[in-house]
Amino acid sequence: MDKRPIGVFDSGLGGLTAVRQILKRLPNENVVYFGDTGRVPYGTRGEAVIEKYAKEDCDFLLQHDVKFVIAACGTVSSVAPHILASLPVPAIGVVEPSAKAAANATENGKIGILGTSATINSGSFVKALKAVRPQTEFYSQPCPLFIPLVENGWIHDNDPITTLTVERYLKPFKEAGVDTIILGCTHFPLLSSFISRYMGNDVTLIDAGEEAAKACEEQLKALSLENTDGSGQCQYFVSDHPKDFAQIAEIFLGKPVQEQVKIVDLNTL
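The chain above was modelled as a monomer; its predicted structure follows.
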């Protein structure tokens, strides 16, 4: 049994969708979450900057003696997987788990991929999908407006701006007849209702955060790193706007945040 926490990081608060799945699947595990809200989004940055941020985020989590790291960020998972591979503890991103799930889910072999500009430009999901199902037809769409819509809470009651944005981005997928869509950013599950409403409920949505949580569970068991009698405690850290965290985090986690949120000085990363 290993009582050390699982470390999770993201460019903002989207990674909390992965934390939600971890707490659901692994209720005994403790979690340390870092949301780099002071530098969100990562998806519009250059590769060198993304790599720098990823290393700093991982170093911060390692200071908290984590036993496992999840990059709950499609951009980091796509652009800087070598940073994760270099860590002294096991680490995963969201690309490979999501690709495997999509390959297993599709019936007509047409898969759509949604992500940040950096994620889509990297071709990471297409490469991972080709490795497990080479005959699949792939359709990729960068969605740079999705993250600010989610981070600002514009996800309720058929918001007209979000509805129009989703329809604009998803139109090529609908025309192509994709039957499976990878939500390649952990912010995007918060837009699932908008996406399903436009695409139809028969289109399967692959939640990158959920698939990463499943992969984490499998690896913890394989490596005998599980915590079997923990209490599922969470520590939350952000690099900006801690006062806004609780309100938005409740949307991502599906429950109120009782724990104190601490701010991290970016100069110390």
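The first strand starts at residue 6 and ends at 10.
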